[in-house]
Amino acid sequence: MRRMWMAVLVLATGCDGIDLEQLVRQHPPLTRLDPEPAGANCVHGGHFVRTGLDRNDNGALDDDEVTRAEYACVTSIPGVLVRVQDEPAGANCTEGGKVYRAGQDTNGNGELDDSEVSRQVYGCASSGAVVTRVRPREPFIFPCGEQGAVVEAGQDQDGDGVLDDAEVRATANLCVLPSEVLLRQSPAPAGAACPTPSTQVDVGTDADADGVFEGEEVMSSMFVCQPLHTLDGNYHVRNAVDLVALEGISRIRGNLLFAAGTATEAVLPDLMLVEGALEVIETSLERLELPSLRLVRGPLLVSQNAALSTLSLGNGSHAPLWVRGDFSLVSNPLLSTLAGVSAVSPANSLFLKDNDALDGGYFTYVAGHPGDITVEDNAALSTLPFRHLEWLGGSLTIRGNSALGSLSGTVLQTVVGDLVIEDNAALSGLWGMPALTSIGGALSVSDNGNLRSVEGMDALTQVGTLEVNRNAVLEAAGAFPKLERVTSGMHFRGNALLKDLWGLERVRNTGVLYIGENPRLSRLMGLDRLRTLTTLTVENNASLTDLSDLVLLHSVEDLMVLSNENLQRLDLNALEDVGRYFVVTENPRLPTCLAVSLATRVGPGETPEIRGNDSSAVCE
């Protein structure tokens, strides 16, 4: 105890006469607020907040007295606040960045207290050189034909000097040999292509062979956007606090999911890159806007959002939104236009399904699409929204769109897969695709209740399979004046009013020919140039009396004539060979002796099956 008092005495009476009151007095804490405009630190503006102790007691917080600095940002949602602070390089952000803390202002004091913070997000800085690669394009892929090059660019995130698949951010297709491609990089300011500074990659060839890559030789320019703040991992948005905590993020290295919750509006003006899936499923959102979005590396799904009426993804008038997976717009009953998603350019399949009010807008950058496109059950849709689509590498399915009166809305020339036109109640013909020349798979026209004609595809020269089935008021099914090649076969089934097949005169050979359940079909006119088939099946056509219009048919593998109640003659006079099955059954007015005579002449490989025909009739 004595030593303690001696210490106090020395402090109080030291040789220099120290002022005890000055020594023990606390310096007052001060806060300094400066307006912060909307920008990188605060999306919607706010204040730059500096705090510290007034160590020189001059009543002002000097710069060297600041111990803490952060941004107090206003948000687009009343009652929700966000604080933004610099994050030094370390465990949370390797290269430093910012930390966003958001929450409800529950005590109403206009400040976000520590106890009110409910979501914290780190937006990390990232760097990396832009690297490129050039590879051959698959032959005969639109628009290059036999030769072409794919040029890709992106940020070298792992620093290995090689552009990996996961690092690709921009792609260009050139119709030149890969060895001819030249590249040039230059910095580009923020603008329409990228909302932040970026690297511009010009690609082209030395067209004049002078050894200099000149401006007029540039064939395409790509932009690799520089993200400002990156969030590592997946992120779920369920409420307003989750949303505002994300407002300063420009890249998400993971999935972004808008799930069921209380938020009715979501606007993220800075978000450019989602390096996983982007899903908006069963939300309460009425409005979703991501105007700076340029890349979604996984699928993009907007589905079952009952109140969503405004959807804006990317900037359709200036730059594409590359989606490396599928794009699906499904069951959004109030969404009336595609104008807000016109920038979307998916690498895989594109689905528009069950959007009751949708009728407007189109996909600006979908011209040569490698995957499937499905347009199904969109009750108000009156035209197809693919104004620049020329080539489709997959299948196009147009099904159940009750207001679709024509197939207009594309400039299609080639469909590599199937073209399915099914159950479109207002469709009366196949007008709208006058440039379509080739369908690699099936042209399937089925269950269209008001289809009266198949006219409209006057340029079509080849299909894999032609299928015209169950169109209730269709009278003529052969109006394809240039169709010459049908590789797999033709099927005409269940068309209640079908009377003729006139218009298929150019088809000489095919696989299967199936004609069944067409009660008004009395002649096979239009098929009179057919020479060879693998299978001929004529089944249950109540008005058909003979097969004489198949006047040039000389060989089939299988012949099936079944249950045609008024068939009286076969008259396949040119037929010379049936390779395997010969089946003529249950044709009550066809003399059995005619079937036996034909079987004897063509010599089928298997024992003929002839029964249920008119055995009492006499053949001359």
Automatic annotation (TrEMBL):
<keyword id="KW-0134">Cell wall</keyword>
<feature type="domain" description="DUF7151">
    <location>
        <begin position="81"/>
        <end position="124"/>
    </location>
</feature>
<feature type="domain" description="DUF7151">
    <location>
        <begin position="182"/>
        <end position="225"/>
    </location>
</feature>
<dbReference type="Pfam" id="PF23657">
    <property type="entry name" value="DUF7151"/>
</dbReference>
<protein>
    <recommendedName>
        <fullName>DUF7151 domain-containing protein</fullName>
    </recommendedName>
</protein>
<keyword id="KW-0732">Signal</keyword>
<dbReference type="InterPro" id="IPR018247">
    <property type="entry name" value="EF_Hand_1_Ca_BS"/>
</dbReference>
<keyword id="KW-0325">Glycoprotein</keyword>
<dbReference type="InterPro" id="IPR055575">
    <property type="entry name" value="DUF7151"/>
</dbReference>
<feature type="domain" description="DUF7151">
    <location>
        <begin position="30"/>
        <end position="73"/>
    </location>
</feature>
<dbReference type="InterPro" id="IPR051648">
    <property type="entry name" value="CWI-Assembly_Regulator"/>
</dbReference>
<dbReference type="GO" id="GO:0030313">
    <property type="term" value="C:cell envelope"/>
</dbReference>
<dbReference type="InterPro" id="IPR032675">
    <property type="entry name" value="LRR_dom_sf"/>
</dbReference>
<keyword id="KW-0964">Secreted</keyword>
<dbReference type="InterPro" id="IPR036941">
    <property type="entry name" value="Rcpt_L-dom_sf"/>
</dbReference>
